[in-house]
Please model this.
Amino acid sequence: MKKKLHTILYAFIVVGVSDLKLEGAEGYAVNVSPTNLIVGEEFKVSWSVPAGTFTLDDWLGIFLFGNATNSAIDWKFATFRDLDTVFDSPEKPGSYEVRYFEWSLFRGSILVATSETLFVRNPVEDPYEIRNFPSNGNRIIAFGDSLVFGKGAEAERDFPSELSRRLGREIINAGVIGDTTEEALLRLDTDVLLKDPKIVIVLLGGNDVIQGKSIEKTAENIRTIITRIQEKGAIVILVGVQGGLFADRLRDPFHALAEETNVAYVPNILRGIIGNFVYSSDTVHPNSEGYKIMADRIFPALAALDTTAEPFALNLEREGDKIVLKWNGEAGSKYRILECTNLTFGAFSPIEGELHMDSKGFSFEVPIDQSRIAQKFFKLEAVPTF
Model:
C-alpha cells in the first residue's frame, strides 16, 4: 500500500536569538534527560552550582523556547532536591528549555543556566509510524486491570465508556480488577485476539508493582502482550501507569517498550489524579472525574488511529465571505481548530474565534482573506480538560 500524507507534522522554527542574558553564570549548569518526550512524560533535571553556593530560594522552571523569564510553564525550588528532580513535560507539543535561577535579596531572580532543548511531541504525530496502521480489524478493546474496569467510578463513567461516547462507537471493556500482567496474558486470546481487534488500549503493570513482581518480568509480559496483538494485525495504544506511586520503577521500561514496538504511547496516565481528592476515589484509583481526565489524554491518540471515527469527520462549507467548519461531538467537550496554508512545512496554527453548538453538532466560522488566493487546510483537535 502506497504511503500517503495523512497527518500533521509539527514544525518548531527558531526565528530569532533569545535576548535572555546569563548573569554571573560561571560554574552553573542545568541538564535534562531524556530530551525527546511525549506530552505528559516525566523527565529528570540535574544541575550543578559553584562550591559553597547558598541555594535557598533558587529555582528551576520550564519555558517555551525563547520565551521571557516571566512565563514559566512549571517550576520548582532547587533547595533540598539533592541536585536533581523530576518534572512532568508540558501538556502541549513544542520546543522547551529548563532554566536555573539564583535568587538574590537585592536583585531578585537571576538567570544563571539554561538546559539543552527539550522536544515534546504528541502520542501520535504520523499514524503510519504506528505498526499496523491502518488496521483491518473491527473492534476497539480496552485491556487491563481495575483502571480499565473503572473501579471507583460511577456506572458507565469508566474511561472506555467515556471514549466510546466521544467516538460514537462501541469500545469493549476487558478490564479485570487485580490483574497482573501474567494473569492478563492468560486471558489475552479469549478477551482480545479472538474478537477481531482493530485497536487495543493496553493498561497494565500497577498490580505487578504493588505485589512486588519483578519489573523485568513485568516489562517482558507487556512486550509479549503487545507483540501478540500486533501479530494479529491490530494497533496498540500503550498507556503508562506511574502517577508518583510507580514512577521510579515503570517510567523507563514503558518508554523503552514504546520505542521498541512502534506503538502509540500515552505516558504517566495518573499524573495529577492520584493524591488529589477531587479526582481520586482511593489511594490508587480515580473517581468518575479522574477517569474523564484519563479519557482526555487517550482520546487524541485513539481518534488519530481510528479511521472509522465518522462522528468527528470535519466538513467544510463556504457561506459568503466565510468558511464554516462543522463536526459532531459531545456537549461539554472542548475543541480547537488549527489552520495551515502551506503543506510544504505542515505548520498548523490555532485560530481564534467563537465555537457554536446546536442540535446538529459543532461549527466554527473562519473569515476568508479576499486579498490573496491560497489553499487552506484545517485540523480539529479535542482539547484535554485537566
Remarks:
- The longest helix spans residues 288-305.
- The radius of gyration is 23 Å.
- The longest strand covers residues 94-104.
- The CA atoms of residues 242 and 250 lie 7 Å apart.
